[in-house]
Amino acid sequence: LQDEETRKDYDYMLDHPEEYYRHYYHYYSRRLAPKVDVRIVILVTVCAISVFQFFSWWNSYNEAINYLATVPKYRIQATEIARQQGLLNKTKEKGKNRRSKEEIREEEEEIIKDIIKNKIDIKGGYQKPKIYDILLFQILLAPFYLGKYIVWNCWWIYRFTIKGQEYGVEEKLYIIRRYMKMSQSQFDSLEDHQKETFLERQLWIRENYEVYKQEQEEELKKKMAMDPRWKRYRRWMKNEGPGRLTFIDD
């Protein structure tokens, strides 16, 4: 009876002994209630998810590097840079330090991958993971991001709505990205010539973007119409259908 809530239940039982089942309910609810602080459970869960996120992103990033190391375009460039820096020559040592061909090949492979990591900026879902992108840091930095977002919106309204200034290149690309409903990483993964085309066609203007969107939809329809696999699918849907249940005996 050292707990205040338990004492209240005990006093209530003495005053109302006829409420038999209610007393049993309160007794077992307190006895079987979890003793661990809910905040600790939430913190441990968030930390576990964050660790899984980080290692999952690292795995995706390493897969991307391993793939790029097999692409002739990037492999040739990385090999040439390694030769210019004299990194490949170090692997072919003589005398006591001489190693097997397998060891030399593995070290050369690691050198090429390191050069690809340093020279190629991978964007999108396979980009190099950052510690600030995991869930734990996103929650901790949420107030900062919220304040930054509010300040940025006030700055945008003041500059372009109140003062009526013209959009710069970054602002135009931002509006285009919003129209296309793309995330920042998705938009960054586009080629530079694509972004230049967006600017040339003035897609930050809503009317121009709607025309561009319609053209892209028509082009996609033409590609699908010419695609042999899509033709086979349409022919199958027309002749066979998606599958029907019948009770007719063959």
TrEMBL record:
GO biological process terms on file: protein folding
Keyword annotations for this protein, in alphabetical order, are: Chaperone, Membrane, Transmembrane, Transmembrane helix
GO CC annotation: endoplasmic reticulum membrane
Provide the protein's localization. Membrane
Q: Where do transmembrane segments lie in this chain?
A: 40-58, 135-158
Q: What is this protein called?
A: DJC25 protein
User: Organism, per UniProt?
Assistant: Probosciger aterrimus
